[in-house]
Amino acid sequence: MAKKTFFVCAACGYETLKWLGKCPMCQGWDTFKEVAPVSKADGKEPRRPVILSDEELADEERVASGIGEMDRVLGGGMTIGSAILLGGDPGIGKTTLCFEIASRLTELGLNVLYVSGEESLRQLASRKKRLGIKAAFAFLTSNHLDDVISAITEKHYALVIVDSVQSVYNPKLPMLPGSMGQVKDVSTRLTMEAKALDTSLIFIGHVTKEGVIAGPKVLEHMVDTVLYFEGDKMLPYRILRTIKNRYGAIEEVGIFQMTGEGLISVENPSQFFISQRGDIGEGSSLFPYITGSRPIVLEVQAITQKTNFSIPRRLSLGYDVNRLFILISVIEKTIGKPFFDRDIYVNVTGGMKVNEPAIDLSVAASILSSYKEVTLGQDSAFFGEVGLTGEIRKTVNMDLRIKECQRIGIKRIFCPGDVRHSDGTEIVTVRNVKELVKKIGNGQ
Fold first, then answer.
1. Is 75 helix (H, G, I), strand (E, B) or coil?
2. Contact 297/332 with Cβ under 8 angstroms?
3. Beta-bridge partners for 253
4. What is the DSSP string of 189-233?
5. Phi first, then psi: what are they for 40, rounded to 5°?
6. Of the candidates 258, 265, 251, the residue with the CA atom closest to the CA atom of residue 294
7. CA pair distance 174, 285, nearest whole angstrom
8. Which of 102, 288, 386, 391 is the most exposed place for a label (fewest CB within 10 A)?
């Protein structure tokens, strides 16, 4: 009896038993292709359930890449057999970072395979020479899935880098390269093969104009770790963020500096972010930010400019604009004067995005400093959550924030609660916004 065929959407992978002119999933027209069913018998023995006791469970083995910021973000290094997805804007430095990782692991005596479906060997050799990388690791310039699987099964590699996962495709499927069906099939098969061989995988993923990894979310569900490489291409620094990590925390952030010879880890990010502060004016304050287990001192800037329009503007970069509206209302109620005639702009320098409420006090201090035209000083830091009634609430890791401020030479710290610290640092207790207004107004 002949096997009955079915139809698959080449754009999103939707399956149906009959041909349709319009896909009900992605709304695409004339995208269905006829596909014959594949036999499920592959000659492999079926796997049986296994009962594990606590004594038989081994700790996760990790391989340190030798790049401090990369290992920090991954929780100490790459877990053997893990699949990592690295996304970022074009030209941000994803390939450069992967070249650095491949070079470091090769110097440690490990085998690394770099699969490129977008560049030729001549282009890869030119990039390798430009970055000054002397270590010799294997390259495979192919976008056929079978070629990649054959390469990783013939020889054991500690790490396989696929650049990019959207360029690799399975010719047996009717979908175009980069479509959801192709991406799902490629990532699934490569991940299963790599885990069986205890090989780590790094997928380099394209990013759409909305700023998300193309796939769309299906690709992020298939891997163990999702990393975003961010930063302004006109500025020398890059930020590596963890969005998902099955083997560690997701709050860690890696800071890199882009140079002509490649990426360099920034060991002292606090000094890096405030090094260009110089002679400050009104509307600037410092905030000790906790990301994962690391404190970073950031600069928060605000400007309160008079407006000639009936509706003032409220704009925030790196700080939640909804919290900005609430904070402005609390300040207006405290000082007894509305800001209907002023535009208010807030910026967290360095391109950092801060989500924790501890930054509220620093934002409020910057706004009041700009409004009252008072300079807060170059060595003053602020942290604390501002409530709707104007109270300043305690935050987590207060001691860690204070120690980081002391380490870089900050002399005065405004924070909630009674904290006793000497070492030449003045701790100014602020219980509510009214006290903050008085201290700023008095120039304390």
1. coil
2. no
3. 241
4. HHHHHHHHTT-EEEEEE-B-TTSSBSS-HHHHHHSSEEEEEE--T
5. -80, -10
6. 251
7. 57
8. 391
| First-to-last C-alpha distance (Å) of the chain | 89
- Show the tokens assigned to 416: 């909630």
β-partners of residue 300 are 285, 348
Amino acid at 37: P
> Cβ atoms within 10 A of the Cβ of 321, count?
11
**Which tokens is 409 given?**
């030479």
Provide the residue-wise pLDDT of the chain in tens; the chain has 444 residues. Answer: 455 788 888 777 788 888 999 989 888 898 888 877 665 555 556 777 877 665 555 566 888 888 988 998 998 899 999 999 999 888 888 999 999 999 999 999 999 999 999 999 999 999 999 999 989 999 999 999 999 999 999 999 999 999 989 899 998 887 778 877 788 889 999 999 999 999 999 999 887 665 566 555 678 888 999 999 887 767 778 889 888 999 888 878 888 988 877 888 888 888 878 876 666 778 999 999 998 778 999 999 999 999 988 899 999 999 999 999 999 999 999 989 889 999 999 999 877 889 899 999 999 999 999 999 999 988 899 999 999 999 999 998 898 999 999 988 898 999 997 766 557 788 999 999 999 999 887 655
What CA–CA distance (Å, rounded) separates 207 from 90? 8
| Residue 31 tokens, joined | 């995208």
**Which residues does 311 contact at the CB level (< 8 Å), separation at least 6?**
none
Tell me the C-alpha distance between 213 and 229, whole Å: 11
115 strand-pairing partners:
140, 162
What's the CA gap between 315 and 306, in Å, rounded? 14
The rounded distance, in Å, linking the Cα atoms of 123 and 274 is 38
Query: Could you tell me where the DSSP H helices lie in 291-374?
Result: 321-335, 360-372
**β-pairing, 159-163 with 200-205?**
parallel
Give the burial string for 65-97 (b: 16+ CB within 10 Å, else e).
Answer: bbbebbbbbbbebbbbbbbbbbbbbeebbbbbb
For residues 262 and 130, the answer to whether their CB atoms sit within 8 Å is no
